[in-house]
Amino acid sequence: MNWGLFEGLLSGVNKYSTAFGRIWLSLVFIFRLLVYVVAAERVWSDDHKDFDCNTRQPGCSNVCYDHFFPVSHIRLWALQLILVTCPSLLVLMHVAYREAKAQRRRANGDDGRRVHLEPGKKRGGLWWTYLLSLVFKAAVDVAFLYIFHRFYRNYALPRVVKCELPPCPNVVDCFISRPTEKNIFTLFMVVTACVCVALSLVEAAYLVGKR
């Protein structure tokens, strides 16, 4: 996946962001996107291959793995990053519409009250679009934090899980690959997501208060 697309997407909306929005942008790039690309993908690359159960019953380890890992951390994390950056695309589309409208006014020789020509200013519909994008970003992060908590209680992976699902012959012990390292990255993901939620809500409150 070309993550450079998201870099260009978010950088384009940077000039319309407040200080809180720029901090959010830095967090997404440095502490979420970069960590995902550089480290997290490698940590979870062997999660299925090295999921070992103390039985040779065919299909047992696959069934147990699917039960304890219904959706991989890394795929959920990727989906979260994609959805949390989508509102920026909506803002960029609104900005493009605004600039095209300004160009048409200049082409028609309208030198009167030229709206939407000041770069970095959020007015009218763009203000609402930006505000809704903040709310949506915060809602996405909260929703995924809840999903992670539902799938993986307390966001933690145990060292050993017990499985008795068919076709396992009895209660078998299954061992997760590198659980400590995965727990550290999961905790890091949760903390950065919480910080991003707080920044989005603070920025939304700032916009409303300033208006």
Automatic annotation (TrEMBL):
Gene3D superfamilies: Gap junction channel protein cysteine-rich domain. Its main location: other. It comes from the Eukaryota. Keywords: Cell junction, Cell membrane, Gap junction, Membrane, Transmembrane, Transmembrane helix. The chain crosses the membrane at residues 20-39, 77-97, 127-148, 184-208. GO terms for cellular component: connexin complex. It is found in: Cell junction, Gap junction; Cell membrane. One of its GO terms (biological process) is cell-cell signaling. Residues 140-207 form the Connexin cysteine-rich domain. One gap junction consists of a cluster of closely packed pairs of transmembrane channels, the connexons, through which materials of low MW diffuse from one cell to a neighboring cell. This is Gap junction protein. It comes from Nothocercus julius. The lineage of its organism: Eukaryota, Metazoa, Chordata, Craniata, Vertebrata. The gene is Gjb5.
